[in-house]
Fold these 2 entries.
Entry 1:
Amino acid sequence: MNEAQSLQQAIDEPVRLAEYDPAWPARFEAERKRLLERFPTALIDVQHIGSTAIPGMPAKPIIDVMAGVASMAMADSLFELILDHGYVTSVEFNTCLTDRRWFMRHVNGRRTHHLHVVVHGGNLWHKRLAFRDALCTDAALAERYAALKRELASRHHTDREAYTRAKGEFVRSVIAQ
């Protein structure tokens, strides 16, 4: 399988949730270290976000990494360097994103990491951390989200975008609190 075929396989991958894996934080830390070693002055901070960052939460076993930079101009200047560092992306998809740049790593057609490059301290930075922190501190809220994720994964098994969109209202309500 060549790189383009492996990327397409990762994009077409069905939605499959895994039970929480206590190895996920270590996988994040390894990627955080790798990114900070490669971009020590460009990355202000690197945070673990998404469901793999929430103890006990079922998740697609993909480590979501949020890297904070000074500006979107800085994010754009890193674009090719990030691609050279083992990530892939859709240029077309990124052209419609105003508040972040998105990349993924994959192995044998399976996503392993998502990298979201955003303005450190900006609106998206705060929203993503607020959502993660709310679920980490409120067990009942986390359980409601886990139940929703399971139901949506069953309903949208073959449509990753629909699965993500369907979680939006819950995410927005948590951030609004």
Entry 2:
Amino acid sequence: MSRESWVLVVLAAVVAAAMLAGAVVLAVRLVRTRRMLGALGAGGKVAFYGALIYTIMPVDLLPDPIYLDDMGVLAGALFYLGRLAVKHRAAQRATGESPAPALPPGAAPRR
């Protein structure tokens, strides 16, 4: 193989690794929103589970080394869930409910 071919192969591998890392980061952020699903209703659950199923399924719109479609679905679900969370918080403020403070997983409330 020529030097130019090796450069292209290495560049393609770096781009594929960067896309995979981006997809993993988005999937982790989506999974962290799972604790809010009960408050966000059926639309939030459909967006959450639909994005996860699409990402895990072996059948994609684009071949697997190209994670742009997976990243788009995950980012869209995160955007939608974020908008639902903002609407939920606004509704809580309007009704005068005080939302419980968010605790990190595994943290015990203060007494």
